[in-house]
Amino acid sequence: MQAMYTVMNRISVPLADGPAFEERFAASMRETLPGVAGLVGARLLRPAQEGARMWR
Length: 56
Prior knowledge:
The protein is an alpha+beta fold. The chain is 27% helix and 7% strand.
């Protein structure tokens, strides 16, 4: 059996910058993650509450 790791980050972003952050972060994931050996998946989760500042 191989080891499996889960990585989560909480990133504080000013509310006004949320859409731009999401666009840049998603573009970065599309560009860099396909070459990661063994990667099963990656998700950018929006804040659970409207008006929250934390992306996960």
